[in-house]
Specification:
The complex is a heterotrimer of chains A (193), B (243) and C (457).
Chain A lengths: L2 H12 L19 H11 L3 E5 L2 H11 L4 E3 L24 E7 L2 E3 L5 E4 L8 H4 L2 E7 L3 E2 L2 H8 L6 E5 L4 E2 L7 E2 L6 E7 L1
Parallel strand pairs in A: 1-11, 2-3, 3-6, 4-7, 6-11
Antiparallel strand pairs in A: 4-5, 5-8, 9-10
Chain B lengths: L1 E4 L3 H6 L1 H13 L3 E3 L9 H5 L7 H11 L4 E4 L2 H10 L5 H10 E3 H8 L12 E5 L2 H6 L15 H6 L6 E2 L15 H4 L1 H17 L4 E4 L2 H13 L5 E4 H5 L3
Parallel strand pairs in B: 1-2, 1-3, 3-4, 5-6, 5-7, 7-8
Chain C lengths: L7 H8 L3 H22 L5 H17 L1 H14 L3 E5 L2 H14 L4 E4 L3 H5 L2 H7 L3 E4 L2 H8 L16 H12 L8 H18 L2 E4 L3 E3 L5 E5 L3 H8 L2 E7 L3 E2 L4 H14 L6 E5 L7 E7 L3 H6 L14 H5 L1 H6 L10 H11 L16 H5 L6 H14 L5 H15 L1 H9 L19 H4 L10 H9 L1
Parallel strand pairs in C: 1-10, 2-3, 2-4, 4-7, 5-8, 7-10
Antiparallel strand pairs in C: 5-6, 6-9
Classes of the chains: A alpha/beta (193), B alpha/beta (243), C alpha/beta (457).
Amino acid sequence: MSSRAQILAAVLANQPTILPMPAFQPFSPTGENSFDKFVATAKGIGSSVYFLSGIAQVKQLIYTNFSAGRIISPIEELSDVAEFDFADLDAHTLEDVELGVFKAHFGVAENSALWVTEDLLGKRVSPFICQHLMLLVNKTDILQNMHQAYDRIGAANYDFGTFIAGPSKTADIEQSLVLGAHGPRSLAVVILD
Amino acid sequence: MKVGLFIPCYVDQFYPNAAIATLQLLEKLGVDVTYPANQTCCGQPMANSGFEHLTGGCNTLFMANFKEFDYIVAPSGSCVLHIKEHIHTSNHEDDKNISGKIYELTEFLTDVLKVTNLTANFPFKVGLHQSCHGQRGLHISQMSELVEAPFSKPQTLLNMVQNIEMIDLKRKDECCGFGGTFCVTEEAVSAKMGKDRVLDHENNGAEYITGVDLSCLMHMEGILKRKNSKTKVIHIAEILNAS
Amino acid sequence: MIQELKDHATLADDFNKDEDRVGWHDDTLWWIREKRDKIAWQVPDWELLRDAASNIKDHVLSNLNPYLLQFEANAIANGITVHWAADAAGHNQIVLNILREKEINKLVKSKSMLTEECHLNDFLADNGVDVIDSDLGERIVQLAEEPPSHIVLPCIHKKKEEIGALFHKHLGTPEGNSDPQLLTEAARHHLRETFLSRKATVTGINFAVAETGEFVICTNEGNADMGAHLADVHIACMGIEKIIPERKDLGVFLRLLARSATGQPITTYSSHFKKPRENQEMHIILVDNGRTKQLGREDFRNSLKCIRCGACMNTCPVYRRSGGHSYHYAITGPIGAILAPNLDMEKYSDLPFASTLCGSCTNVCPVKIDIHQQLYKWRQVIVQNGYAPKAKELSMKMMAFTLSSPFVYHTAGKMGRAVLKYAPFTVNNSFNPWYKQRDMPEVPSASFGEWYKKNRN
């Protein structure tokens, strides 16, 4: 018998009488203002937060903070300040990227996570391999919690998607928090009006 | 209301004063309380060591001693929890009946007698040790792990004692490390846990450590005595009965 | 490994030779437990969430066969190759076969407790495959040639000075420097080269969604993503119990996981892998390795609900003072103590006894596994199967004899409280371990029973 058949038969023989799937609970809202909560949480986990009113201001922010180094962004309006056509490059060639700028679908107030999918990233590796990361989210796209987040995602057909909350980090050495483990050393969250 | 007094074996043998205080306190509160002379032990030491199958004799004896009472009360959360969860005799109805009417002393006072005032006086600084089996097993107080409204049955009663000063602990409900046979089979960890627990009380100025379980208190007393500490242990019944 | 011959108590005794270090270990983990409490209190529905997570997992375990089939079908439709392994050896061989077919002999691996359970690294090393662990903590214990001591915090037992010395030796950091920032930066450079040069990666899986065939990996460092998005071959390994029914169930689990584990609101990355990249190979290995057996054990089945958050370790007063290595099993702490005996009851017969049954583990568990009740039940099973030490069995029989008879009990008691010999705290006392660090209780002149007879009858 194949391992597959063997395992499936053993599972069938040993699984108990079916227990019902619990009805989805209407988890109560926190009562807090989602927007304020999002900002406070983002700052609390080491992100910097900017309130900007348009792409021109985003460019200014990039100029001010990243005068040197390779910048990538699949956002067409930023193609004059960032490399736009990188999707067809070999992923390894992104190793020297200083800054990646991407749009996020939405943010989640309770943990400040931002949901991005492959189609917003150019390449899967891009928000991980860059030294610094900037994510743009519309102010109206801040949800309260993860239940709302998955309601919003629904049956969306992405190939890869990820929630990003803060810069890459580790506390493996004596629980001392260090930002910039393998991924970005910083995350700038830009909230667009 | 006829109450059977269940005095666990090590209380009977080593801490008779706690048993006497329990009896006197219940009598003071007008309870018709009797101590069946033929009782020994709940069987927990064997069961927790993996030998529950050897506890048949203890179970039968317990049933014979306590079956007829309306309530069974004991100054020990641990032994009460063991009987509640693990008494197995040939008669399941009897087992269920016992489980439903056995109470740890403080929960009996707050839940059944609904005591609202006591005449006790205890002018000392006291730290309350939350014994795990009473707390996490019998739920006589809220547990720090759970997101739930705080309450504590032992604390409610201690608040009725005059001149007592309760101290706060850094870790309010960490295990003391007694753990039955654990205290000898895992001597190093058990002793370290006990030392840490005792130090928390000492650092916060406790003159006495109290609690609902003498097993925990005995373990902590052993450590306190070894280091010649000024802090003493006392069972909660002795405080609630103090004048 | 030598230490596998020693039992928990002996290893804990070794660990306790340096009391200051035990205090440091205990305080570090307690701090994480406090962070967990603090953040749990910020979620108004915390206990309801735990209920929901527990119920979803109970449902999955009761319907696992159809869910596995559904997950497999969807994963295949997504372009993923699905493998099945009955045991650790089968799992390791599948990994090796995939690598051999691609002529790859270097691998980068992110954290997977399953691969620890299967001893994948040793097996691959024996077969000429070089493995580098990319999680910082795992890399540290790998350099130290030790197993992880904690499932979430693999090197929580190590002091930064020791890590500094390791990094000086292996990565060329300045001698005597143990600054976490500097050491992490050194590891970042070292592992970046690894990510950029390795053609294959192995990762674990936190959740696998039957409805969509996707799987989710949670990390703070981004190491799983760096490995997976740069490698030509991605092999993701999961125990068969990692399945959840629908994507929206992730909402429940992702709210609980990081809060329970480290007191964070969520991990930095929660990556959803649905399809391989263009020209990338993606494999999933579904592993049994004793899980179906545990599924058939009614009393222990729900240990399979575990989402590997490590909260039970952080809260366990014994774990904090005995260290993860004292459990001599890949999954340490209370959850390890109820999983390990399923695999080898004799070898791990000591673990369910390494607990005071205080119950704190059960209370913090985000999927409400009744861990301390299962520890109690394993004790009974282990004794029934004859794995209790003989001396203990004899003393227990003597105790049962004494306590079953009021006459024997009272006679023993009268003989100068001779019951002391069988009292719970001195049983099996050839040299009385109680007395090593504790005084005995003072023996009163009369028992309560004797006092009562005199004063109330």
